[in-house]
Specification:
InterPro entries: COI1_F-box, Leu-rich_rpt, Leu-rich_rpt_Cys-con_subtyp, LRR_dom_sf, Transp_inhibit
Distance between the termini: 43 Å
Protein name: Transport inhibitor response 1-like protein Os04g0395600 isoform X2
Largest sheet: 13 strands, mixed
Helix content: 25-40%
Number of helices: 20
Shape: globular
Structural class: alpha/beta
């Protein structure tokens, strides 16, 4: 317990504590609560009574902030004085599809300045869709002497110079995970900035970088780490050195990268694959036979990310070789391809469902699907918590029957009672949304694209999904009636995003007036109140309207 914490004194204080609901001394209660790791459980604990609120406050070391504008850093440091780990999300998810303009916001620097003043022992920072500059990374490396872990996913604004600053100044680094970021990739020389004395590094992922790196620098880290990413040609001696390094990696659990893989390189990995639980090949253009050869050496695999170049043949190998698989993500190698030349279909998805009964998380990009296939898949794997099916051609029906895909997603929500996240696509009518409202009682996040018939669809979801926290919609026919159907729900949700829908400025103003504690932001190119709002972002915040909104964002 912090030495600055005011402790209870005499018996009078003890009686007051008992009346407040706690019969335990502060020190005991804080130690017990320190064993509670779930964010939801800790939040529930803090609501029991004032004593439990204070104990939870002082014992918490990690904070998760799902929207960087829902709270200010000043409020965070007042609420939790002993934080050592922070997870922070910024832009709406649809920024991944270029639906959020550049310079929208979500800059990390103001957070780091505040944290430096109150959290000198900060050890871990996990960022998603935040803007991070090289100056911020330099500040981070110099301000927190015990810093250990940095993860950045879908962030922008920095270059390999910033990574060099982290490598130079973070002497106790255990993890540097750089995934799917918009980076100015100047060179691979930043790897040489890690000190020769660094022995703590356990996770290094820079698979999204393409610059050539020094094999010597990589080998130095690889000996300790057992993973890396490179694309340069190897001499025969370097190949054997690499092979020897991987042979020593008997406890390797995660492997990613392989941007320019060949059969020769894949064979190097075989000795280190027996204990792999996570294989990220989302940057590797592999064919089905190559994937099959690798997976035959990965009996313990739980998570697999691949490109659709593996085709159905590769996914059939997944079903045959990975009985413990829990998560599958299949990304498109070319998301803008008009015609299906290579890719995956319902056949590959079915094969995985037959061979992987523990599967509960899927992200699946494809060009064709059928209602019957989806119904069979969820019967084989009824424990889905995350089901994200992305049929890349908008308004694509069941390609065999030419019927809408309503029954497919109806089967998902009827069968998968644990479902928490759902992404829907294809030709869908309001029937899909009626199914969701009726059956998806544990749904927390719903993503909608090019779907629905009328406002009634969204109204069904808002009235029928009591646990809904995040709703994101694009290119759908929902208007003001749909928007305003959530008046009583938005304060209990994290956020709502609607773009290219039928919502008008007048509808947005009504929402802002009816629920003034919400931040209602509109991205709009002028026009009257009856003009459709280009994009609407609605979220709850205890910090009020944000102070860094750019000129193209109107806060109502």
């Amino acid at each position: 317990m912090s030495s600055k914490r005011k402790k209870k004194g005499g018996s009078g204080d003890s009686d007051e504590s008992t009346r407040g609901g706690s019969i335990f001394p502060d020190e005991v209660l804080e130690r017990v609560l320190g064993l509670v790791k779930s964010r939801k459980d800790r939040s529930s604990v803090s609501l029991v009574c004032k004593d439990w609120f204070n104990a939870e406050r002082w014992s918490r070391t990690h904070v998760f902030i799902g929207n960087c504008y829902s709270v200010s850093p000043e409020i965070v440091i007042r609420r939790f004085p002993n934080i050592r780990s922070v997870s922070l999300k910024g832009k709406p998810r649809f920024s991944d599809f270029n639906l959020v303009p550049p310079n929208w916001g979500a800059d990390i620097h103001s957070w780091l300045v505040v944290f430096a003043s109150k959290y000198p022992n900060l050890e871990e920072l996990r960022l998603k869709r935040m803007t991070v500059t090289d100056e911020s990374l330099e500040f981070l490396g110099r301000s927190f002497p015990n810093f250990k872990a940095l993860s950045m996913m879908s962030c922008d604004g920095f270059s390999t110079d910033g990574l060099a600053a982290i490598a130079t100044h973070c002497k106790n680094l255990t993890e540097l995970d750089i995934l799917e970021n918009d980076i100015n990739d100047k060179s691979g020389n930043w790897l040489s900035c890690f000190p020769d004395t660094l022995k703590s590094l356990q996770v290094l992922n820079f698979a999204s970088l393409n610059s050539d790196v020094s094999f010597e620098s990589l080998e130095k880290l690889l000996t300790e780490l057992g993973t890396g990413s490179f694309s340069q040609e190897l001499t025969l001696r370097q190949y054997y050195d690499l092979e020897d390094a991987f042979k020593s990696c008997n406890n390797l659990h995660t492997l990613s990268g392989l941007l320019e893989s060949t059969v020769l390189y894949l064979q190097v990995l075989f000795p280190a694959s027996a204990n792999l639980t996570f294989l990220n090949l989302s940057y590797a253009i592999l064919h089905g036979g190559e994937l099959a050869g690798l997976l035959s050496h990965c009996p313990a695999l739980r998570r697999l990310w691949v490109l659709d170049t593996v085709e159905d043949k590769g996914l059939k190998a997944v079903g045959l070789s990975c009985p413990l698989l829990e998560e599958l993500r299949v990304f498109p190698a070319d998301p803008y391809a008009d015609n299906l030349v290579h890719g995956v279909t319902e056949s590959g998805f079915l094969a995985v469902s037959y061979g992987c009964p523990k599967l509960h998380y899927v992200l699946y990009f494809c060009h064709q699907m059928t209602n019957e296939a989806v119904a069979t898949i969820v019967q084989n794997c009824p424990d889905f918590t995350h089901f994200r099916l992305c049929i890349m051609n908008p308004h694509q029906p069941d390609y065999l029957t030419k019927q809408p895909m309503d029954e497919a997603f109806g089967a998902v929500v009827k069968t998968c009672s644990k479902l928490r996240r759902l992404a829907i696509s294809g030709l869908l009518t309001d029937i899909t949304f009626e199914y969701i409202g009726k059956y998806a009682k544990n749904l927390e996040t719903l993503s909608v694209a090019f779907a629905g018939s009328s406002d009634w669809g969204m109204q069904c979801v808002m009235s029928g999904c009591p646990k809904l926290r995040k709703l994101e919609i694009r290119d759908s026919p929902f208007g003001n009636a749909a928007l305003l159907s959530g008046l009583e729900r938005y304060e209990s949700m994290r956020s709502l995003w609607m773009s290219a829908c039928k919502v008008t400025m007048n509808g947005c103003r009504i929402l802002a007036k009816q629920v003034p504690r919400l931040n209602v932001e509109v991205i709009k190119d002028g026009g009257s109140d009856e003009c459709e709002a280009e994009s609407v972002y609605v979220y709850r915040s205890v910090a009020g309207p944000r102070r860094d909104a750019p000129s193209f964002v109107l806060t109502l």
